[in-house]
Amino acid sequence: MRRPTVSVPYTFLVDQRDSRSFVNVVGGRKSASQAISLSCIQEIQDWATNFVLVGEAKSFDLLCNFPSLVDLERYGVCDVKYLGGMIVAVKFKIGNVADMFKANKGICQKWFASLDKYGKNYVHFERVAWIKITSIPPHAWDEGNFNSISGNFGKVLVQLCSFWNRNDISFAKLCILMAYRAKINEELLVLIDGTKFKIGVFEVDNDWVLFKLFIVNHHSDSDEEDDDED
Q1: Which DSSP string corresponds to the chain?
Q2: Which of 37, 74, 113, 217 is 20 to 30 A distant from 16 in Cα terms?
Q3: Which domain of life does the UniProt lineage start with (predicted)?
Q4: Residue 117, Cα to own-chain centre: how many angstroms?
């Protein structure tokens, strides 16, 4: 009796003699260890090194609403840039205002976990990512459990996984802050009441709106002006 033929998916083999994959060897791509030379844009460097403070927002909610909060304090802020993670760059019109802002602990400690002047050698990498956790049994559906799982990848910023307020509990969705560059797609083993379960953790695209209230406020101001004209 003939054995059934088993179809084996084709995969690229990695040459163990060096760190390059078969794809990189064939394509002639540079190794990741080789530095790529980049040019410095003088105009942007001038922007960044004059009257710019770099701060870490104290919470995800503050990060989302940050420019509108700056505007409410009536400081001479002319621009705000998001640098990734929880970090924002705040550009002031003149230098002494930036110094006054930094010296005002009442404001800085309310909004920032840290705040300092920008330097051209500034290096920081963190990113905000949304993940889904799948295959958690209903009897283990708990905020603390999801925090424990997410803690393997980063710090939890937002949880959208209330058991009592949703019908679909096939997955939990969380927003995390992490320094992990690769996109998450993992299978983990968990232990629940002595029984082992395999769960999935994978990264998803999520349309979270940065600086959302700042955008809304601008639209609402325009609407009010239109109403006044009518």
Answers
A1: -PPPPPP----PPBPTTSS-BHHHHHHTPPPTTSPPP----HHHHHHHHSSEEEEEESSHHHHHHHHHHHHHTT--EEEEEEEETTEEEEEESSHHHHHHHHH-HHHHHHHEEEEEE--TT-----EEEEEEEE---GGG--HHHHHHHHTTT-EEEEEE--STT-S--SEEEEEEEE---SPPEEEEEEEETTEEEEEEEEEE---PPTTHHHHHHHHHHHHHHHHHH-
A2: 37
A3: Eukaryota
A4: 22
Structure tokens at 25: 């060897």
Q: Are 91 and 79 in contact (CB under 8 A)?
A: yes
| Contact in structure between 214 and 71 (CB atoms under 8 Å) | yes
Q: What is the largest CA-CA distance in the chain?
A: 88
pTM (2 d.p.): 0.71
As a whole number of angstroms, the distance between CA 85 and CA 88 comes to 9
Is the CB of residue 129 less than 8 Å from the CB of residue 203?
A: yes
Average pLDDT over residues 200-218: 70
Nearest to 64 by CA among 195, 208, 219: 208
Position 8 pLDDT exceeds 60: no
Structure tokens at 116: 């300092």
What is the per-residue pLDDT for 143?
92
